[in-house]
């Protein structure tokens, strides 16, 4: 332990894609500036190698107070190959063993949702625990009574048995529904952290040229890990309800990591709509290239299928001052409407999507610049790290 360290914090996350890697990178960078915290990250070996290789390009610090416990590929494969119930128990027990061997004083579960069963039936942790709750959807109107009851029961019992100190909710509206269930456990809102990058006009021009992004069309962006939940199919179906003139005005930019099977599916799908210009960037996008995708766009599409909770894409759109066409469902729909960030629609209805696209092309979409700035400020990586620090240690 460092002579300066007051706290020994262990963090566990076995997933190495999407927002998981971003969150971990932000915490490494921010906690590198906090010598009173000794930080152990129990994470996939692939993440560690990628971070160390690219951190200077991405602009992340790595302090002497940051340590890694690698999970090799066979271990991750074995954990992820189990049922969600066995996986919860196995990952929790592994986390407790490693953390207690390291003599952690505090722990943080980056994806609390996964671990409730393990916390309830697994080993007893003898350190103060915090967790980030991604999908507290038991209070949604569409949630069945049985499902809501089970989720509330699991939440109450798992946090009680683990003597959980603090639970951070990414869904801010869920906090008032969670608090009555947890007794002494503190419940705090937490931001969905996003890093802003400075992008020059020359860099943006080079990015547009590299990917052949037209300057005379409205670029509609779908960004992030690409899977059926992103609503790509619904958007393509919606284009069938646009006129030839309207179709000639838009271009779809699809950017993000993707599985080989789903990439093959999308390539086949796009061939079925030859009148729609599609620019696919099928690769993981990091650092400044993330910002460039949003800066190159005119409209950010968030046509998520029954999405629960927050999304960093909404924050990135606000950072770049880009209007959103998003789902009317859940927290995202409420935020887009209440903060005047764009338009909402039934993301499963291609005709409604087409109608909103027509409005965008012919009349535009109003938005609040002040609310976009507020969204960007409240969801910075610094705000994220400070909330975690205060909730865990103070």
UniProtKB/TrEMBL annotation:
InterPro entries (alphabetical): Glyco_trans_1 (IPR001296)
Source organism, top-level taxon: Bacteria
Glycosyl transferase family domain ranges (all copies): 207-370
Keyword Transmembrane helix annotated: no
Keywords noted in UniProt: Transferase
GO molecular function, one term: glycosyltransferase activity
Short name of any one Pfam family annotated for the protein: Glycos_transf_1
Protein's GO biological process: lipopolysaccharide biosynthetic process
Keyword Transferase: yes
Protein name: Glycosyl transferase family 1 domain-containing protein
């Amino acid at each position: 332990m460092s002579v300066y360290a007051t706290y020994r914090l262990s963090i566990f996350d076995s997933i190495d894609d999407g927002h998981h890697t971003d969150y971990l990178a932000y915490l490494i960078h921010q906690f590198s500036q906090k010598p009173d915290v000794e930080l152990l990250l129990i994470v996939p070996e692939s993440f560690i190698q990628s971070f160390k290789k690219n951190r200077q390009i991405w602009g992340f610090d790595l302090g002497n107070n940051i340590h890694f416990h690698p999970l090799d590929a066979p271990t991750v494969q074995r954990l992820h190959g189990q049922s969600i119930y066995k996986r919860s128990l196995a990952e929790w027990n592994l986390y407790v063993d490693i953390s207690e061997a390291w003599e952690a004083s505090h722990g943080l579960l980056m994806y609390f949702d996964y671990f409730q069963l393990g916390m309830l039936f697994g080993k007893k942790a003898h350190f103060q625990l915090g967790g980030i709750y991604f999908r507290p959807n038991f209070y949604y109107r569409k949630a069945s009574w049985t499902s809501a009851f089970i989720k509330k029961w699991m939440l109450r019992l798992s946090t009680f048995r683990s003597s959980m100190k603090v639970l951070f909710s990414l869904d801010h509206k869920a906090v008032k529904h969670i608090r009555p269930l947890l007794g002494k456990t503190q419940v705090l809102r937490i931001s969905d952290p996003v890093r802003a990058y400075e992008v020059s006009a020359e860099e943006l021009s080079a990015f547009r040229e590299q990917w052949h992004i037209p300057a005379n069309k409205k670029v509609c962006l779908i960004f992030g890990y690409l899977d059926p939940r992103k609503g790509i199919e619904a958007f393509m179906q919606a284009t069938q309800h646009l006129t030839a003139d309207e179709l000639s005005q838009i271009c779809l930019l699809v950017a993000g990591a993707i599985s080989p099977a789903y990439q093959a599916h999308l390539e086949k799908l796009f061939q079925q709509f030859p009148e729609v210009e599609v620019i696919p960037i099928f690769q993981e996008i990091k650092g400044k290239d993330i910002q460039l995708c949003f800066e190159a766009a005119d409209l950010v599409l968030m046509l998520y299928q029954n999405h629960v909770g927050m999304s960093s894409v909404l924050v990135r759109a606000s950072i770049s001052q880009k209007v959103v066409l998003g789902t009317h469902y859940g927290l995202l729909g409420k935020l887009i409407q209440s903060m005047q960030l764009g338009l909402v629609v039934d993301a499963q209805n291609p005709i409604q999507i087409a109608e909103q696209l027509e409005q965008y092309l012919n009349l535009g979409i109003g938005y609040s610049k002040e609310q976009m700035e507020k969204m960007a400020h409240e969801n910075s990586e610094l705000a994220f790290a400070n909330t975690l620090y205060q909730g865990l240690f103070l």
